[in-house]
Design brief:
Blueprint (H helix, E strand, L loop, with lengths): L1 H13 L11 H40 L2
Helix pairs in contact: 1-2
């Protein structure tokens, strides 16, 4: 997840926080909206893995091993 966060941060920086420049055409505006949505989706994905999926997987593994 730390690698993904670094790449997302690079995209945020390169796109000025996913803000299209003044005078940007509709395709660039759509690209910025799409990147912003992707960023939000990835953040949610990581949060769900870290707070729900991974702890459940560890608990299931421990239960299966009898720990």
């Amino acid at each position: 997840h730390s690698e993904a966060e670094l790449e997302l941060q690079k995209m945020r920086t390169a796109s000025n926080g996913f803000q299209p420049p003044d005078g940007a055409g509709p395709k660039l505006q759509e690209l910025c909206r799409t990147l912003q949505a992707f960023d939000a989706d990835m953040r949610r994905h990581v949060e769900l893995e870290d707070t729900a999926l991974f702890p459940r997987a560890v608990a299931a593994e421990q239960a299966a091993l009898g720990d």
